[in-house]
Write a structure and sequence with these properties.
By secondary structure, the protein is of the alpha+beta class. The chain has eight helices and 15 strands. The chain folds into three domains: 168 residues, no CATH class; 96 residues, no CATH class; 105 residues, no CATH class. The longest helix has 19 residues. It binds heme C (4 copies). The site of one heme C has 26 residues, from helix 4, helix 6 and strand 13.
Length: 382
């Protein structure tokens, strides 16, 4: 159980680790006081250190309008709610307090009713379920950071996600959120965000009109620290238009209408806060994410020829035609039957069978994680 392994944590090694410990309702009383003291010291340090790095990566940190910092709304209210909640119920509830249709992350709700029951229902990988499931052959993860966050024996959101760190190096799909207007100076035109984010960690973008005009004549600037500093360097400004490049692969477009001086929009661009790097490369040498908890099902094209009586997955960790038998295609077909990535493919990116960067088949080639309706014809998404 999670509480029993606190001794393995390098105490006070990192402020993020410390904060995460505070989310657990199972902290032991004698340790609680020490943690609280450490938390307060950390908070005071952050409060009085101008320009200190954010304790959590955007969008899990305050923007110009969303307030998310060390105490609001994740930690103190949660800690105060305390003992009645088990650790596992506490973690999923905390995420769902924002990741619900009416929450601050209402564009990315993950509801308990979405949990998959194979062959029956669901659009999301299971959570709040026992990590060890013998019919499906799952085991506790071997990755220490993930194993530490199997709470009360259960897989929870934080087993798979590190809600404080959005690292590009751990993979997953980058996301540019919808731009939201946060002022009311009378603009009639919309601003939309786009592009494929390629920054190393999450960013909140704040866009501000500096010269009034229409969708081509208005001029604007943008900030990545909620308005403390601006790009481009003054007095330079950027002109409105379609797909105007900001940075890190992100762009914005101005729709038909007028834009008033001072009007602001904000949006985030970030990575899916993964706890460890997604699966890549061969089964014995590559990064294991799905292949960690599900390791008893993992096999390659050689193992598949040796029946040992146990359930296994489709071969993974190998490239197409690894067995040299010549019956694999060189690229998978798209949902409409045309070669994926070539002329004639369908316009739905969520039904693509993606190989990893080395061209290897992985669990995620065929499976998704959330918002997966198992229908090739529909675009998956919240
Ligand atoms: C205080 C509110 C809040 C809480 C609590 C919260 N989130 Fe979020 N989260 C957000 C917001 C806001 C976004 C951005 C939503 C959007 O893009 O529209 C977000 C986005 C995300 C993303 C996608 C990031 C990206 O850009 O790809 C992940 C993954 C995520 N949250 C996981 C979690 C997990 C796991 C927990 C619980 C440990 C959690 N969140 C708790 C507010 C919250
Ligand atoms: C078994 C591991 C696992 C569990 C459990 C899990 N997630 Fe995820 N989640 C992932 C992975 C992996 C991705 C990234 C998928 C990708 O980008 O290809 C992801 C992506 C997301 C995203 C971004 C989705 C998008 O379309 O941009 C959100 C938000 C999120 N998770 C929230 C949660 C919340 C909240 C919980 C708990 C209720 C949770 N996750 C439980 C593994 C998990
Ligand atoms: C932290 C451990 C863990 C990780 C990491 C993990 N799984 Fe699972 N997975 C489980 C458990 C436990 C179950 C059994 C859920 C239940 O009891 O219904 C499961 C079930 C499943 C199922 C059956 C549907 C369901 O949700 O019950 C699929 C498919 C699956 N996992 C795929 C994946 C993929 C793909 C990844 C990588 C993105 C992954 N898993 C990562 C633990 C994990
Ligand atoms: C070549 C595509 C493919 C790959 C690769 C793949 N799966 Fe699957 N998986 C499927 C399909 C299709 C199903 C649904 C049919 C079924 O239940 O067998 C499925 C079903 C499952 C189920 C539910 C089984 C049940 O009892 O209903 C689990 C769990 C699962 N996969 C886990 C994994 C894991 C973990 C990996 C990586 C080690 C993986 N899969 C790799 C295609 C794939």
């Amino acid at each position: 159980m999670w509480c029993g392994r606190t001794g393995e944590v390098p105490v006070g090694s990192h402020e993020r680790t410390l904060e995460e410990r505070m989310t657990s309702a199972c902290a032991m009383p004698q340790r609680a006081a020490a943690w609280l003291l450490l938390l307060m010291v950390t908070m005071i340090f952050i409060a009085f250190s101008p320009g200190v790095a954010e304790a959590s990566d955007p969008p899990h940190w305050s923007s110009s309008t969303v307030t998310t910092d060390c105490t609001t709304p994740c930690h103190i209210p949660h800690h105060a709610a305390g003992d009645g909640l088990t650790a596992s119920a506490g973690n999923v509830n905390l995420c769902q307090s924002c990741h619900s249709p009416s929450g601050a992350a209402g564009d990315l709700p993950i509801n308990s009713s979405d949990v998959a029951i194979p062959g029956t229902q669901g659009t999301s990988h299971a959570f709040d379920v026992a990590a060890v499931n013998s019919p499906l052959g799952t085991q506790e993860p071997e990755n220490p950071a993930m194993q530490l966050r199997v709470m009360g024996g259960n897989v929870v959101c934080s087993t798979c996600h590190n809600q404080h760190s959005a690292a590009a190096s751990f993979g997953g799909h980058p996301r540019v959120s919808l731009a939201k207007q946060v002022t009311a100076f009378g603009s009639t035109g919309p601003v939309t965000s786009g592009g494929i984010f390629n920054g190393s960690t999450g960013v909140w973008y704040l866009v501000e009109i500096v010269t009034a005009g229409n969708q081509t004549s208005a001029r604007f600037r943008y900030s990545k620290d909620n308005g403390t500093s601006w790009f481009p360097t003054a007095p330079a400004t950027l002109g409105a238009g379609i797909d105007v490049t900001l940075d890190s692969g992100v762009n914005i477009s101005f729709g038909t209408g007028s834009f008033s001086v001072g009007e602001r929009w904000e949006f985030s661009a970030s990575w899916p806060f993964l706890r460890s790097a997604l699966d890549s490369s061969a089964n014995d040498t590559g990064d294991a994410y799905c292949r960690d908890c599900h390791r008893s099902w993992v096999m390659d094209h050689d193992t598949v020829r040796t029946y040992d009586g146990n359930f296994k997955s489709h071969p993974v960790g190998v490239a197409l035609d690894a067995n040299g038998m010549g019956y694999d295609r060189s690229v998978p077909l798209d949902g409409n039957g045309a070669p994926q990535g070539a002329a004639g493919e369908d316009s739905n990116p969520t039904n693509d069978l993606l190989l990893d960067s080395g061209g290897f088949v992985q669990c995620l080639t065929c499976h998704g994680v959330h918002y997966v309706d198992s229908n090739t014809l529909t675009v998956d998404g919240p």
